[in-house]
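Suppose a colleague, Dr. K., hands you the sequence of a protein chain of 272 amino acids and asks what its three-dimensional shape might be. Before reaching for any lab equipment, you can write down a predicted structure in token form. Begin with the sequence itself:
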Amino acid sequence: MKHKINWGAIYLVIVFIILYLPILYLVGFSFSSGKTMEKYQGFSWTHYQTLLQDTRMITIVINTLIVALLSALLATIIGTMGALAIKRTKNAMRNTLLSFNNVLMVSPDVIIGASFLILFTVIGMKLGFWSVLFSHIAFSIPIVVLMVLPKIDELSPTLLDAAADLGASPWQSLMRVMLPAIAPGIMSGYFMAFTYSLDDFAVTFFVTGNGFSTLSVEIYSRARQGIDLEINALSTLMFLVSLALVIGYYFISKHGGSRKNQIVTVKEGDVQ
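The predicted structure, expressed as tokens, is then:
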């Protein structure tokens, strides 16, 4: 009996090898006691200890986390409101708005970064924390819209009609029916926006000023100066954080899928 070759599985194995083998190579040498990547010289936490003693790097890590958390939060709020607004528009206008949203998603990061640089220069904004924050909010909003809008489309109109029949105001229907129902999409949008902000390089590279930097820009700057295994340690930590976010996003999406057909009930006492 002939066995069919599973070309799909072979393709996935090749892709994973190409993508993850360099990462695993980098992670492995982050625990080397040597100073170069020419030869592994035994397990050691030296580079992680050096990293934790680097006050400049700790400051950059804090800056990166603050920008990622704030930009993801604000982009999630704005993007969710945008998705709700798009849902209420007519088909022609909706398609137009979605097209503009998708253009921002597929535009090269270099073009987006250069555009923000020109904008901030024209309006006289000093490059630094605020320029990076506004840029990250702007490019994260389309991501949130794409994550939230499908959940809104899945929401049954009868739920809102039932809430209205029970005396709920539009605000109560939004807060007690719609937002809880689309919460998995909102959380997924937040995680995606946080991840995009955390590892963005191209846009951030254009809009950072003197005295402010993020992890991606700092890693690039140090890598240009030569191989330093402290970079490996830092990159390993970033990879682990990103992996944790992806796993969190997976479980949130899975939880949201299990609630897809769940009926949301509105008690009469809650809407009065």
